[in-house]
Design brief:
alpha/beta; four-stranded parallel sheet; two-stranded parallel ribbon; 6 strands; about 50% helix; globular
């Protein structure tokens, strides 16, 4: 379905494609191979933001898929980042909060406190920053909730798209 949508976008004159979801980047290669359009990968834009701050050890929060599967995590590792993810039970709760609360518009102080606790524990293990690797997490926590830099992939990805469009107006 996503590859087909990419083909339709190309046929309709799109200059590039963004997949505005961290987890759906699992299908990035399928979409890219279906079109001749440039795709802006959300993890690549985030990697650039992290490296601009000279950080190398990073927490990855997101859905269970984003935190554990190679389509995202391995891309960070291949870029030279050390990636820390929560323990298995914590990952399950991070995922549950996304799916059962954030995706339905519930923003609980208890969930914010839980995310803060998870980030603080990983910061104590040497994490220098935290990736909000799900577009909904930024609705719950912000830089004000963390002692280490927060990388909101929604904002980073959108800024990368603007930069892409402004960089080459001949597209």
């Amino acid at each position: 379905m996503m590859a087909s949508s990419g083909k339709r976008l190309q046929a309709d004159g799109a200059q590039g494609i963004m997949i505005a979801s961290n987890t759906m980047h699992k299908l990035f290669d399928d979409v890219q191979s279906a079109t001749d359009l440039p795709l802006i990968h959300i993890a690549d834009a985030t990697i650039n933001a992290i490296k601009a701050q000279n950080l190398s050890k990073i927490v990855l929060l997101g859905t269970q898929f984003t935190m554990t599967q190679g389509f995202y995590k391995q891309r960070l590792i291949d870029a030279g980042l050390e990636v820390l993810i929560p323990a298995e039970d914590e990952r399950a709760e991070v995922h549950r909060i996304i799916k059962k609360e954030l995706c339905v518009g519930e923003f609980k102080d208890s969930s914010r406190a839980y995310y803060r606790q998870v980030v603080e524990a990983l910061a104590a293990q040497g994490a220098e920053g935290v990736i909000l690797g799900c577009t909904e997490i930024g609705l719950l926590i912000t830089q004000a909730d963390s002692l280490i830099p927060v990388f909101d992939t929604t904002a980073i990805h959108a800024a990368a798209a603007v930069d892409f469009l402004l960089a080459d107006t001949t597209l």
